[in-house]
Amino acid sequence: MDWMQFIIGLLDKLVWPAVVVFVVVLLRKPLTQLVPLLKKLKYKELEFEFGRELKAVSKHAAGAFPELKRDQKTLLIASADHLPNAAILESWAVVDDAAERLIRTTRRDIDLNVTTRYKLLQDLLIKDKWLDTKKSKLFDELRQLRNKVAHAVGYEVGTAEAIQYIELCFTLVEHFNTLIGTADSSAPVLVNR
């Protein structure tokens, strides 16, 4: 290896890191403006999710200010026209919340923060006989469609399908809310003596 091959080899190894550093320095200001807009950052096994704090704050705000609560179903149906996939994910979140509240009426200490949360919810609802065969099939189909929308690359849903999905989700939520009402009223009342 002579000195020219050595210099070419050295440049070959150093040029890409130098270009990356140069681009980062050059685009530093626009990149810093984009960082707050990130929702999720994943690099190999390192993963960050942002926005969880905002969800927690908005839940507390909805409880403190009842006027912030709007008709979710109407809002989701309106958003289905432009963002059908997002409307499906949001309507499933309403089902998820109602199912969790129902399960917690009888199982207060259960840990639902698992990777297969929705399947666990379904299994618990069936096991506790909150869902009959038809309703459990509906829950399962809604769950599977939600998973396709959330995880399948390029999977798009039309407006009509999103609206139908929202309607089915809210039918299931109404069922859960009815059961929550009967579960709360049938709970034993403790009297202090």
Automatic annotation (TrEMBL):
UniProt keyword annotations, A-Z: Membrane, Transmembrane, Transmembrane helix
Domain of life where this protein originates: Bacteria
Bilayer-crossing regions: 6-27
Name of protein: DUF4145 domain-containing protein
Organism: Bowmanella pacifica
Upper classification of the organism: Bacteria, Pseudomonadati, Pseudomonadota, Gammaproteobacteria, Alteromonadales
